[in-house]
Amino acid sequence: MTDFLRPATVEDALALMAAGGVVPLAGGTDLYPATQRRALPGLVLDVTGLPGLCGITTGPAGLRIGAATTWTALARATLPPALAALQQAAVEVGGIQIQNAGTIGGNLCNASPAADGVPPLLVLDTEVELVGHRGIRRLPLSQFLTGPRQTARQADELLTALHIPASALSGQSHFRKLGARAYLVISIAMVAVRLDLQAGRISHAALAVGACSATACRLPQVESALTGAPAAEAPALIRDADVAAALSPLDDLRATAAYRSGAAAELLRRSVATLCQPVPA
Amino acid sequence: MAITINGTEVPLPEDPRMSLAEFLRDGLHLTGTKIGCNQGGCGACTVLIDGQRVLSCLTLAVQAEGREVTTIEGLSSGDDLHPLQEAFIAHDGFQCGYCTPGQICAATAMLRELAEGMPSSVTGDLSRPAPLTAEEIRERMSGNLCRCGAHNGIIAAILQVAQEGAA
Amino acid sequence: MSRVQNTLIESVRKVVGWVPERWLPGGTPDPLIGRHGAVGTQLAQLDGPQKVRGAARFAAEVPLEGLCYAALVNSPVTRGRITRLDTAAAEAAPGVLLVLTYRNMPRLGLVPLMGVTNLGAVGNSALPILQDDQIRYNGQVMALVLAETQQQADHAARLIDLSVDTAPALSDFQAAKPEARTPASILVERNEQSAGDAEAALRQAAFSTDATYTTPGHNHAAIELHGVTAHWTGNRLVLHDATQAVAPTAAALAKLFGLRREDVRVLSPFVGGGFGAKGFWDHQVLAVAAARMVDRPVRLMLSREAVFRMVGGRSPTEQRVAIGADAEGRFTALIHTGYSVMPPYSASPEQYTLGTRSLYRAQSYRFGQKHLDLDIVPNTFMRAPGESVGSFAVESAVDELAHAMDIDPVELRLRNEPETHPLTGTPFSQRALATAWRQGADRFGWDARSTMPRARRDGEWLLGMGCAAGNFPYVRMPSGALRIRLTRDGQATLSTSAQDMGMGTATVQTQHAADRLGLPLDAITFEMGDSDLPAAPVAGGSSQTVSIAAAIAAAASKLTVELLRLAGNASPLAGLRAGEVRLAEGGLVCIEDPTRRETYGDILTRAGRDEISVTETGAPPLEIFKYAMLSHSANFCEVRVSDVTGELRVTRLLGVFDVGTILNPRMAVSQLRGGMIMGLGMALSEEVLFDERSGRIMNPGLADYHIPAHLDVPEIDVTWTGIPDPRSPLGARGIGEIGITGVAAAIANAVFNATGKRLRDLPLTLDRLIGAEGA
């Protein structure tokens, strides 16, 4: 009964995955609830022992986050202000027990439309690194996420790391989410915003919304409206209609579609306003 | 191929599908660790692994290989209760007692997280140490559900221990 | 049956009404009322140390040699017939001992439904358990798999191949309304009751409100999952169960499996939260049957999803409340009617109109409930069944009327306080709701409330205050038995099969016994949670405290008689009768001449006895027919609502309770607060999401069914009037359920005061707050 494997190298992991029917396991925080059963399905491959999958490193090309880095490790790391949104998201993922076990890579692979990690990573132009026996490939996160609970990962591939290009490490970022109760488990709407400010104007804007469409997405139209705008006027440039047009909000158990897109627009305005506030000297 | 549980080394279970919660409860009869949902939704199964709080229902026992697990049974020694255990009694921080071990294990780790300056989502400024307020403790304990409604007593108990520790 | 029941109960009321007070229980107030002894002190829960160490052993934690584990397969469809049930792969899987389906399940009868005409019964469902190929609701058990380990059982359960021929199902609330049934009675009350022509009075009223309120299904969501460990030794059965009904469960199992009652033992020393859910369901029967078939102990713990699918919750309701008032605000008409779900195989009528019937004086009334027969898991009683959701409707309506009339909502309620029960004219045993209102308004700072909505603001946050009353009937169960065993060393052990889920029953009754028997607290041992002990009824309806108190009082009286007989002529007590002595200071004391006294130890020693033991049952609860006996609450709430996002935060909550004597203030606060927090959840987030097309619950887990988390719960203020009920044992009334009543309405009314938006549908979610029309 060898249902559980904990390979020590990526090569071993890939060899095992090549046989098929393998479910990669990291923190387990999504996998267990998704199975709705106490026993896990099939062969389980624990990736948390693989070298290079945990931790954050910086280089000239940018920042690399190992896929099995936990939310807690992210929250505690010293990172550029551009990653503040990701760190804010990290402390809002479930309870702290979940943050201690759950990983950023697992969050992406499970591809919930309400995955907390996605909007902050989208505004960082994140690329994902997939390793398979055919080699390594990199994909923009937006192409990796193909639909609710669907990704471009092949069954024999492993998500090993996230890469944030140096060009996206500038500016400041902010994350907000809204849920049905004070303590948020699953949100109705969430946003991440990263802005570069130069001489009181926005020189670069990246905005993303989660939980309001099949997969979280960037809002290019709103971003271009903000680019070049004076910081003080920026929040008012985010119009409900533009936000709604970019999203296809879900009319589901937790809120109506109209409420969702309205809420997303409001959260965006707030995040932009927070980032545009003059920093007290 | 062993786990250290409350200071004692125990061999791993034969069946790798066994969660740590099931291993503790069914395998070792350490039933102080509770199962309330088996889905990571309630916090009743909280234990400490290498000092960090985790949900034992979402952890396979084999994943804890070579690590130190502390359960509610490992917090007190003999008749001496842990200060949090004393405080839970003093503040009526429970009724049925089912979520209680998870609350206490979570609080144990939380006090250390606070001391280490780890921020939470209600900490306004993530770069400064979190203030010791009821609101901070509520946020940090929100992964542990209680249905009897002992919330006020639980927070009061933890706050008291936190303040005594900080003093 | 119901009509016969109505006639029967109304005759008892009539007869008891004629009987002189002093002949009835409570006719002479309990002498312990007003005594300052152990009762009224802040004793901590006696089992606290066990609980904080994780040493309290729950039902699914009992270690047994040879234990095997069960997993269940539940129906994914609502109605239909099993066409294929292939268990071969499961049976061949490693470790599997048994696959139990309708084909090999022992043929068993139906479990009698609990009800007021069958108080010993415990059934929540009158449906057959694994007896045929029919599927009657979504989530019904299709098979049980038993294996050496839980992992093997879970794995094998997935290998069962089930095909179903689906049939049309009734699962749409609105579609079922035309076929609604009108039952003759709701629990002990006649269902449809009216006085005067309420509809006409409503039309003619100077001021009126007439609206529909809805509440969704709720789930008890106790943190402990339903679990049992079943164990046969020959023809004797031991069941470690998480149940609120210890002795009744033993009786039901004995009957079902053809055993003598004394050959069934149910043990339930700890229950991890019940709130009405920890009763008799299919899982006990399945585990017991499986254990017998493999002749090994069996553990069956339901998954969280199975708890949602197999253990019913609170029914959704749609309620109409209409109130007419004259120019002074006196009610001229009060109407409360509506619909809830109660399939014929369920036991719980969700009595949402009952509380309203005694809450206000009006010139005319109309009350009545209709039941919808949907194909659902049988709904059941959940904390304050009826009053919890009924109070949301009626207390929202009173607030609507107060606003329409521009009268303070507390004042409007005070103007309509009844002197006697509004429908029957029966006197209240004790009712100080008006006192609670005044006390609460003062404590809360109610005068800071603006009468105009949207008047108080803090940035984007709108502030508001609201209030609402709650009530819950006093219930004392007949036939609760209790044994007192007194030993020569002055120690007393009290034993009853009743259950303590953390309410503090054992602690409070230890306090009571100390006072009743005149012994120190450490001389008392209170045993419970074992069906081998004298049989107590179900722990429900907030009845247990007074039911046990009455049994202790009765047993103490019997003990007095027995002790006097043992004392004999050589005792200083010689010649005294039971009425002439009291139990105090470790013995019997003559009331007239306290120098004539003797300790229990001396009496027993002289008689050559090591101990004395008496068992007695509390007097029949006839007081509930003579008086209108209810607890009341006045709830006050302050909220903040974001004008932009609709986020709602309850910042302050106060409950003032008129619940008779408070037996242990520390635990009373916890119980009442606990109820209020469940009310908070009901107001803010709790909702069973039911797919009306498929008949399936869509959020069967704690990540999706949102009970309040720490961050949702503010510091909650609880206080009471402290006035004893002269007609109840110890002057007390149960406090397990009153806490939840009125809370949701107080919050919704505060939201209206903050925002001008009247939300008549629970829960008060942020999209509803932003979407709603202003007043």
UniProtKB/TrEMBL annotation, chain A:
InterPro entries: CO_DH_flav_C, CO_DH_flav_C_dom_sf, Diverse_Substr_Oxidored, FAD-bd_PCMH, FAD-bd_PCMH-like_sf, FAD-bd_PCMH_sub1, FAD-bd_PCMH_sub2, Mopterin_DH_FAD-bd
Key words, A-Z: FAD, Flavoprotein, Oxidoreductase
Alphabetized PROSITE patterns for the sequence: FAD_PCMH (PS51387)
FAD-binding PCMH-type domain segment(s): 1-169
Stored SUPFAM superfamilies: CO dehydrogenase flavoprotein C-terminal domain-like, FAD-binding/transporter-associated domain-like
GO molecular function annotation: FAD binding; oxidoreductase activity
Pfam families: CO_deh_flav_C, FAD_binding_5
PANTHER family: XANTHINE DEHYDROGENASE SUBUNIT C-RELATED (PTHR42659)
Entry protein name: FAD binding domain-containing protein
Organism annotation: Szabonella alba
TrEMBL record, chain B:
Record field: transmembrane: none
One Gene Ontology molecular-function label: metal ion binding
InterPro entries xrefs: 2Fe-2S-bd, 2Fe-2S-bd_dom_sf, 2Fe-2S_ferredoxin-like_sf, 2Fe-2S_ferredoxin-type, 2Fe2S_fd_BS, Aldehyde_Oxdr_Iron-Sulfur, Beta-grasp_dom_sf
CDD domains linked to this entry: fer2 (cd00207)
Pfam families, per database record: Fer2, Fer2_2
Keywords on record: 2Fe-2S, Iron, Iron-sulfur, Metal-binding, Oxidoreductase
Source organism superkingdom: Bacteria
Domain 2Fe-2S ferredoxin-type, first and last residues per copy: 1-75
The protein, known as: 2Fe-2S iron-sulfur cluster binding domain-containing protein
Automatic annotation (TrEMBL), chain C:
Domain Aldehyde oxidase/xanthine dehydrogenase a/b hammerhead, chain residue ranges per copy: 53-168
SUPFAM superfamilies membership: CO dehydrogenase molybdoprotein N-domain-like, Molybdenum cofactor-binding domain
Keywords annotated in UniProt: Molybdenum, Oxidoreductase
Gene3D superfamilies tied to this protein: Aldehyde oxidase/xanthine dehydrogenase, a/b hammerhead, Aldehyde oxidase/xanthine dehydrogenase, molybdopterin binding domain
Molecular function GO labels: iron ion binding; oxidoreductase activity
Any coiled-coil regions, as ranges: none
Transmembrane segments: none
Protein name in the entry: Xanthine dehydrogenase family protein molybdopterin-binding subunit
Lineage: Bacteria, Pseudomonadati, Pseudomonadota, Alphaproteobacteria, Rhodobacterales
